[in-house]
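Quick start: what a row looks like.
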Amino acid sequence: MVLEKIREVVSKKFKVSPEKVNASTRLREDLNVDSLDAVELIMELEDTFKVKIADDEAQKLKTIGDIVNFIKPKVK
């Protein structure tokens, strides 16, 4: 469920097919996410999942799988 929702957010934000977004998808290398895009994505994920992602934590999120592993324990 978390992966599917993240896939939906990422595919809409970066205009890529949801099928191309999976746990091993790398933000910078595969989706060409720059630092501004990353901040906007984090803010959107915070709103979507009602979680807080600190800046130092956000910098560690390199793949979709990293994001899932960070958010999943925080979502009920």
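That is the whole record. The chain has a mean pLDDT of 96. The chain has one domain: 2-74.
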